[in-house]
Design a protein that fits this description.
The chain has 2 helices and no strands. It is elongated and about 40 Å long. It has about 50 residues and is mostly helical. It has one domain.
């Protein structure tokens, strides 16, 4: 999907900024990002199927 590439870039930029402001490990941040991406994908599928 065309929007996922743009969303991935947006999300990675947001995570880089967040990582620079926190003492969390990159692994913790990317685990959260993985969960967020799965939730977004599920939401898009639900909307598409309406």
């Amino acid at each position: 999907m065309w929007w996922t590439a743009h969303f991935d870039d947006f999300l990675l930029d947001a995570l880089r900024e967040q990582f620079s402001k926190t003492d969390r490990s990159p692994l913790e941040i990317f685990d959260v990002a993985d969960v967020m991406m799965k939730q977004m994908t599920e939401s898009v599928i639900k909307v598409r199927d309406l």
